[in-house]
Specification:
Structural class: mainly alpha
Function: C-type cytochrome. Part of the cbb3-type cytochrome c oxidase complex.
Strand order of the largest sheet: 1-2
Number of strands: 6
CATH superfamily of one domain: Cytochrome c-like domain
Distance between the termini: 53 Å
CATH architecture of one domain: Orthogonal Bundle
Order of helices and strands: HEEHEHEHHHHHEHHHHEH
Largest sheet: 2 strands, antiparallel
Strand content: 5-15%
Number of helices: 13
CATH topology of one domain: Cytochrome Bc1 Complex, Chain D, domain 2
Radius of gyration: 33 Å
Family: Belongs to the CcoP / FixP family.
Shape: elongated
GO molecular function: electron transfer activity; heme binding; iron ion binding; oxidoreductase activity
Pathway: Energy metabolism; oxidative phosphorylation
CATH class of one domain: Mainly Alpha
Pfam families: Cytochrome_CBB3, FixP_N
Amino acid sequence: MSNFWTIWISVLSLFVIFACVVLLRFCNKNDTGIEEGASMGHTFDGIEELNNPLPKWWSYMFYITIVFGLIYLAMYPGLGSYKGLFGWTSSNQSVRSMEESKAAVIAAKEAGVLSQYDREIEHADAKYGPIFKAYAETPLEELVKNEKALKVGGRLFLQNCAQCHGSDARGSNGFPNLTDGDWLYGGDLATIKTSIMNGRNGMMPPKGGLPIDDSELDALAEYLVKLSGREHDEAKATQGQGTFMKGCFACHGMDGSGNKFMGAPNLADNVYLYGGSKGILMESIKNGRAGVMPAWKTILGEEKVHVITAYVYSLSNK
C-alpha cells in the first residue's frame, strides 16, 4: 500500500475516534443555561423534553469502545500498511500458486508472523489428518459403503467442486453431470480418482481439423442428430455420414460411440456437454471445444481426493 493511502486511512480512522470523544464530551456538558432536570420547553405528542444528561452507563460504555478501538488499532493491522504490534495477518495474500503458498507459510513461521488462515489450517490438519489418513488406507471399494466417509466427501465436494459441477453435481453448460453415469474418460473408481488427481484437458479442434465447408457442416450436424435417435433428414444425414468418415471417426469411433481413452464423447447417446440442438452441434463442430479441469492433487492432496472419489462414484452408483 502506498504512503498516501496509509496516511489517508490512518488520519481518517483516528479522526473519527477523536470526533467521537469530542461529541461525547459535548453531550455530557450542560451549557444550555437551563437547570438540570428542568423542562427544555419542547413537547411533542404529550412527551416533554427535559434537560437530563446522558446515562452514565451509556457514557462509560462509549468510552470503553473508544479505548478498545485504539488498543485494537495498535495491536492489529488497520492503519494502512502498519502491521500492528502482533504482526498478525489474515492470510498470505500475495501468493499466486500452491508452491508460493507453502513457501509463504514456512517463511511466516520462521519470522514469527501470525497468519490466521495458516493457524486454522494447521489446527484442522492436526484434528482431521488422522481421519483422512484412515480413509486413505481404506480401499475405494470399501469406502463407497462407508456412509460417514461419503458425508465427508460430500462436504469436500461442496467446498471445492460445486462451483463448476453444481451443489447437486448435475453440472451445467460445459461442465459434466456427475450423476447420470455418462463418462468421457470412464466412471470406474480408479479412473475417477485419476481424473480428480491429475485433471483433464479436453480439446476438439475447429472442424476437427478437417476441410469442411458450410454445406458439409450442416449435413454433418444432421448426421449427429440421427446418431442420437432423433427425427432427421435422411438424405442430408447420409451426406453427413460421408463427412464424418473423413476423419471424425478417428476420435469418436466408426459408430460415434466415442473413445474413453481420448475422452472423446459418445455422439449416439443423446447426452451433450454443451447442448444437443442442431444449431449448437454446428457451433461445436465449427469452432471446436476446449474444456479444462484442474488437477487437485496439489490443492487437496491424495487423502482428500480419495474420499471425494468415493462420493462422486456413489452419485451414479446408488
